[in-house]
């Protein structure tokens, strides 16, 4: 994938099931957040949008949704790694009226044909009124 340019999403992409596992169509779930026409209402919704961005190679959304104090200058996604499934394990706070929250998850992937799982407890906070990813512990 390379630099923070992201892949173009086609109409076929938006009609399919959202990679985040919500059960909704991508167009009705993470696509508006990726396009910037909607904000994630909760920390979990932002976590889901970030997983979908990894699955779709959307480095631009990942950078935009990263807190300014911890955001890298650029993000190089591994084109050989395919994110396949997200499991939300736990959420703490991060709701509509909160300013901070955590989401613990298992993100399943395939790398060079081999399955793997990333487990992380991610911290989210609001910056300029919107949810952003702060950091995480593996």
From TrEMBL:
This is UPF0225 protein ACFQGL_17395. Belongs to the UPF0225 family. The lineage of its organism: Bacteria, Bacillati, Actinomycetota, Actinomycetes, Micromonosporales. It comes from Micromonospora vulcania. Residues 42-136 form the YchJ-like middle NTF2-like domain. It comes from the Bacteria. InterPro entries: NTF2-like_dom_sf, SEC_C_motif, YchJ-like, YchJ-like_M. PANTHER family: ADENYLATE CYCLASE-ASSOCIATED CAP C-TERMINAL DOMAIN-CONTAINING PROTEIN, UPF0225 PROTEIN SCO1677.
């Amino acid at each position: 994938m390379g630099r923070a340019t992201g892949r173009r999403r086609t109409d076929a992409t938006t009609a399919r099931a959202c990679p985040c596992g919500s059960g909704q169509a991508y167009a009705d779930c993470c696509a508006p957040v990726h396009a910037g026409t909607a904000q994630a209402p909760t920390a979990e919704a932002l976590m889901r949008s970030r997983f979908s961005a990894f699955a779709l190679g959307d480095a631009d959304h990942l950078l935009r949704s990263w807190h300014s104090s911890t955001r890298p200058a650029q993000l190089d996604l591994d084109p050989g790694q395919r994110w396949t499934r997200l499991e939300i394990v736990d959420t703490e706070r991060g709701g509509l009226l909160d300013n901070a929250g955590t989401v613990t998850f298992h993100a399943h992937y395939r790398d060079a044909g081999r399955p793997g799982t990333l487990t992380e407890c991610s911290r989210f906070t609001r910056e300029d009124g919107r949810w952003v990813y702060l950091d995480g512990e593996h």
